[in-house]
Amino acid sequence: MKAYSQDYLNDVVENQGKLFDFVAQTYPDKDTEDFIKTYMASKTRKSIDEAKAYVNTMDAKELWEYFTETEKYSLKSGKALDGFMPDWIGEFYAYYQWYYDIPSSEVLKKVPLEFIKKAYYGLHDLELDLAVQKVGEV
């Protein structure tokens, strides 16, 4: 049994990648990593885990607005992740959470951001499901 219906999977994966990329591109002087850590442990992401259609079907910009309002979140000063990395990390974490049927709040404990940033260069050219399987259930 997976985390939620496969019907939502492609949208969730794509939108989370676009969300992480949106934050990194829109706010280059802000800490993307802090955002990712906060988002993955948030009530907003938990709603996606629970397949709440209202949140699962939001695009990246709507999700950003919903997240900042719901969580009362504001970005911290710092450096944004660059290139294709934020998009790929967002997609990877969304697929990993679904594939191993774990709460999103557990994903970064199992696959820390520091690890996935280093592994990005060896994994990002693989199909997402293969990359997730290569990292494995930790």
Report what the structure shows.
This protein is an all-alpha fold. Helix content is 68%, strand content 0%. The model has no long low-confidence stretch (mean pLDDT 94).
DSSP strand count:
0
What does the largest sheet look like?
A: none
Give the structural class.
Answer: mainly alpha
Q: What kind of oligomer do you see?
A: single chain
Give the overall shape, derived from the CA principal axes.
Answer: globular
Low-confidence parts lasting 5 or more residues at pLDDT below 50? none
Order of helices and strands: HHHHHHHHH
Q: Over the alpha carbons, how many angstroms does the gyration radius reach?
A: 14 Å
The count of helical stretches stands at 9
Strand proportion: under 5%
Average predicted confidence as pLDDT? 94
Distance between the termini: 18 Å
Helix fraction, binned, reads: 55-70%
Primary descriptors:
138 residues; mainly alpha; 9 helices; 68% helix; globular
How does the SSE layout of this entry go?
Layout: H1 6-26, H2 32-40, H3 43-49, H4 53-56, H5 60-71, H6 85-99, H7 104-110, H8 113-123, H9 128-135
Helix pairs in contact: 1-5, 1-6, 6-7, 6-9
Structure summarized in a few sentences:
This protein is an all-alpha fold and 138 residues long. The chain is built from nine helices and no strands. Helices cover 68% and strands 0% of the residues.
